[in-house]
Amino acid sequence: MISLQQMHYIVSLSDVGQFQRASEICFVTQPTLSMQVKKAEDTLGFIIFDRSHQPLELTPFGVKLIPILREVLSESAKIKTISQQMKGNYVERIRLGIIPTIATYMIPDLFSKWLKKLQNVQLSILEMKTEDLIIALEKKELDGIIMAGPFNDNRFTTQKLYTEEIMAYIPNEAHSSVLVDDLKELHPWLLSSGNCLRNQMIQLCQIKDEANDNHWNYEGGNIDLLINMTEQHGGYTLIPEFYHSNEKQQKCIKSIVTSNSSFHPARDIIAIYPNRSIKEIAINQMIREIQLQYNKKIQNYDVLNWK
Predict the structure, then answer these.
(1) Are residues 127 and 212 in the same domain?
(2) Are residues 98 and 131 located together in one domain of the fold?
(3) Tens digit of pLDDT at every position of the chain (307 positions)
(4) Which residues contact 77 (CB under 8 A, 6 or more apart)?
(5) Is 195 part of a structural domain of the chain?
(6) How much is the CA Rg of the chain, to the nearest whole Å?
(7) How far is the C-alpha of 84 from the C-alpha of 142, rounded, in Å?
(8) What distance, in Å, lies between the first and last C-alpha atoms of the chain?
(9) Residue 117: which residues within 8 A CB-CB, separation 6 or more?
C-alpha cells in the first residue's frame, strides 16, 4: 500500500497539474516528488497521471483514486486532532467559505459573536463564488460553506439557516413595492458571472444574459458598486434583505411583488459541511448564532434557485 506522504504528493499534484508547483507546495524537490509518485503508481499497478498533457490530466484510474485519497488524508488528520484534544493543547481551525452577497453583512454582524462563542478556535473566512465554494469543500480545503440553496449531496450535511427576501434598489421610485414586470422596463445592473444573485436576477426578471455585454463588464460581487451605478446612471439592481443600508439608501429599497400574486422573491440561505466532520460541534455553534441573528416571521415567499 502507498504511504500517507505519497498520497499527499499525489493529491497536491492533481490540484495544480505541474510537478514543479506541487513540489513547492509539498516542500520537497521536484525529483523527489516525481520519484514518489512514480513509485506509488508502480505499487498500485496503474498510471495516475497522463504526462502527455500540460497541465497534467488524471487517467480514468486517477479520477477514481483522488477522492479516496482525499478521504484517507482527512481521516488521518482527525486522528492527529483527537490526540491534540486529549492533551488539552488543541486550537481548532475552522475554514469557512461564504458567497460575497452574504459575507457583506454576515461577517460584520456575527464575527465577534462567533469568536466569543467559540473558545480555542482559529476562524478563517474566505469569500468565494458558489461553484468555487463547492469545489473547495469537495477538496476539503474548507470545513464548511454558506451559500444560497438548494444543494443536495449525500456526502454532505445541509442545514437551512434562514430565508431572505430579495429586494430591488431603485432610486427615485416613490412606491414601497414594485411589480416584477415593471423591472423589465429598467436597465439592470448585474454582478459578474458565478454570483448566484446574478443568476436569480436573470431568472426573476427574465433578462437575457448577454444584455449588458456591450455596456457592462464587471468582475466581482460588490453590491455597493452596483448601488452607486444605479444612483449615477438609473436602472435597478437586486440586493439581499439583510444588506447594511444607510438612511438614504433605505428609501430606495423596494419589495418586489411577483406577477399576479402577493408573493415576494426570496432565497434560502444554507450551511453545508462534510458528514462525520470532527468540527461539527463548532460548526453547529456558528450555525445556531446565524439562525438566532436572522430569525424572523415567515412571509409569502417565492424561493428562487441559485443556478
Answers:
(1) no
(2) yes
(3) 899 999 999 999 998 899 998 999 898 999 999 999 999 999 999 999 999 988 899 999 999 999 999 889 888 877 877 776 676 666 778 999 999 999 999 999 999 999 888 877 889 999 999 999 999 999 889 999 999 999 999 989 999 999 999 999 999 877 888 998 888 888 888 888 888 888 888 888 887 655 555 565 565 678 999 999 899 888 899 999 999 999 889 999 999 988 656 788 999 999 999 998 888 889 999 999 999 999 887 778 888 888 7
(4) none
(5) yes
(6) 23
(7) 20
(8) 41
(9) 285, 286, 289
Asked if residue 41 and residue 123 are part of one domain, the reply reads no
SS3 93: strand
61-to-12, 136, 209 alpha-carbon distances in Å: 17, 22, 38
Q: Do 237 and 230 contact (CB within 8 A), yes or no? A: yes
Domain containing 8 — which CATH number? Answer: 1.10.10.10
Question: What single letter denotes the amino acid at residue 33?
Answer: L
Asked if the structure places residue 302 within a domain, the reply is no
Question: What is the domain-level CATH number for residue 213?
Answer: 3.40.190.10
Classify 298 in phi/psi space as left (phi over 0), alpha (psi -120 to 50) or beta.
beta
Q: Are 81 and 69 in contact (CB under 8 A)?
A: no
- Does residue 152 sit in the same domain as residue 278? yes
Q: What are phi and psi of 184, to 5 degrees?
A: -65, -20
Domain containing 187: what range? 164-265
Domain match, 119 and 171 both: no
β-bridge pairing 121-127 and 92-98: parallel
Q: Is the peptide bond before 171 cis (omega within 30 degrees of 0)?
A: no
| Domains contained in the chain, number | 3
Instruction: Provide DSSP, 107-167.
Output: HHHHHHHHHHHSTTEEEEEEE--HHHHHHHHHTTS-SEEEEES----TTEEEEEEEEEEEE
Residue 299 inside a domain? The answer is no
* 229 touches 236 (CB < 8 A): no
